[in-house]
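Below is a filled-in request sheet from our internal design queue. Each sheet records the structural input a requester submitted and the sequence that came back. We keep these sheets so that new team members can see what a complete request looks like end to end.

REQUESTER: design group, bay 2
PRIORITY: normal
MODE: inverse folding
CHAIN LENGTH: 219
BACKBONE (tokenized):
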């Protein structure tokens, strides 16, 4: 078997806030440890109580963010819920150079920009809540935001939902195990697309036209 080629896949998860992207993303990272790297975004939002800088986000000031935009450091960036969020270009290139795929938890504006910049590499999955009441319940149950922030996020959820059609795949997160199974299947199938596997076929064709094939294998 030839060495594993780099599949260079950017797996984008988006959803209305509270639909379950973070939960699904964490599980996917555990399942594909060493093959998939999580893109830690930069944000001007303040950290929530249980968040760890460098693991959940790189928390930066508005000035630092503006400087990064000016330096063209972002593969994409957008304003969401009144704060700016962005994906570092260098982190994507580093993951690719290590032969890893990259997982993103970003909004639809970011998904659109990544698809434009990396059309062949990007696979976008939109996570849907089973219904709006459940979505509201999950946001409240998470207890990480104030009631006003939750209100704002619910209003924004409707806006985010309206962009589902730009995505290649939809996953309904009702039962977590079932939803995870679908996400895993999407990732695995995407890795098997012919353009990501053509390396193997080309290698076989090259082998079949070699002298050794004629003299040793065909014999
Ligand atoms: P997002 O990252 O999309 O904002 P989270 O992953 O933080 O959403 O999920 C929001 C809340 O819903 C969390 O408390 C999480 O534990 C819970 N949750 C996620 N998926 C499910 C599910 N399938 N069933 C029940 N609760 C869920
Ligand atoms: P939260 O503040 O709940 O962590 O994230 C709010 C929203 O910002 C979520 O929809 C999340 O997917 C999105 N987001 C997080 N990081 C990025 C990023 O780097 N770029 C973009 N465009 N959106 C992001």
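RETURNED SEQUENCE:
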């Amino acid at each position: 078997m030839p060495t594993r080629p780099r599949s260079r896949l950017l797996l984008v998860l988006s959803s209305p806030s509270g639909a379950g992207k973070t939960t699904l993303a964490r599980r996917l990272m555990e399942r594909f440890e060493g093959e998939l790297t999580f893109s830690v975004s930069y944000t001007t939002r303040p950290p929530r109580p249980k968040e760890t800088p460098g693991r959940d986000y790189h928390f930066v000031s508005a000035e630092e963010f503006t400087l990064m935009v000016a330096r063209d450091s972002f593969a994409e960036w957008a304003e969401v819920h009144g704060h700016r969020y962005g994906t570092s270009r260098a982190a994507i290139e580093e993951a690719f150079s290590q032969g890893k795929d990259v997982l993103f938890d970003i909004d639809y504006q970011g998904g659109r920009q990544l698809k434009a910049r990396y059309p062949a590499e990007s696979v976008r999955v939109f996570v849907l809540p089973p219904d709006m009441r459940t979505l509201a319940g999950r946001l409240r149950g998470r207890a990480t935001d104030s009631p006003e922030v939750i209100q704002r996020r619910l209003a924004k959820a409707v806006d985010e939902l309206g962009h589902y059609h730009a995505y290649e795949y939809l996953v309904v997160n009702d039962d977590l195990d079932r939803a995870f199974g679908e996400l895993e299947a999407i990732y695995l199938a995407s890795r098997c697309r012919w353009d990501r596997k053509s390396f193997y076929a080309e290698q076989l064709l090259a082998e079949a036209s070699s002298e050794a094939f004629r003299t040793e294998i065909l014999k």
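SHEET NOTES:
- DSSP finds nine helices and nine strands in the chain.
- The mean pLDDT is 93.
FILED BY: M.R.
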